[in-house]
Amino acid sequence: MTARAIFGLAGLALLMAVAATASAQTLRDPTRPPGRSVARDAPPVAGGFVLQSILNSTERKAAVINGKVVAPGESVDGFMLVGIAEDEAVLKNGSDVRRLRLYPAIAMKKIKESHEGAAEPGPGNKP
Questions:
Q1: Sequence-ordered list of residues with C-beta below 8 angstroms from that of 72, at least 6 positions apart, any chain
Q2: What are the φ and ψ backbone dihedral angles of 3, each rounded to 5 degrees?
Q3: At 84, which helix (H) or strand (E)?
């Protein structure tokens, strides 16, 4: 093979590699909850705060709000974190209270329990 043919093949291979890279789509994170499209570095939404995660362990509780880990009693942008639940964080600044939901589109429902400790009958529970 001549040098000209080798350079031609190398150039063609390089061109194909660049074209394949340019046309590749960004892969979706399979661990991201469905319907959640907030990017890590996205600016806060109109309300000013984005609850990104809740850290709940035996050692500590914290919420990740606008990319910052905040423990109860600490503040973020002038609001103090006053409460953390499994899917919600509560911020307070004077009389202004803001409830940040981890999954705003999903409404969690708790099952009522009777005095015996068994769940009460409902649409999904048969007596």
A1: 61, 62, 81, 82, 83, 84
A2: -65, -35
A3: strand 79-84
The Cα–Cα gap between 20 and 18 comes to: 5
DSSP 27: P
Tell me the C-alpha distance between 69 and 80, whole Å: 13
Q: For 28-72, what is each residue's pLDDT tens digit?
A: 777 776 665 545 544 445 458 889 999 988 898 999 998 899 999
Token look-up 């907030």 returns: 38
User: How do residues 23-32 score in pLDDT, each as one tens digit?
Assistant: 556 677 777 7
Has residue 31 been placed in a domain?
no
Q: Judge whether 70 lies within some domain.
A: yes
In angstroms, the CA 65 to CA 84 distance is: 12
CA dihedral 80, 86, 88, 91 (to 10 degrees): -10
Residue 55 lies in domain: 51-101
Kindly state whether residue 14 falls inside one of the protein's structural domains.
no
Reported as a pLDDT band with limits 50, 70 and 90, residue 82 is very high
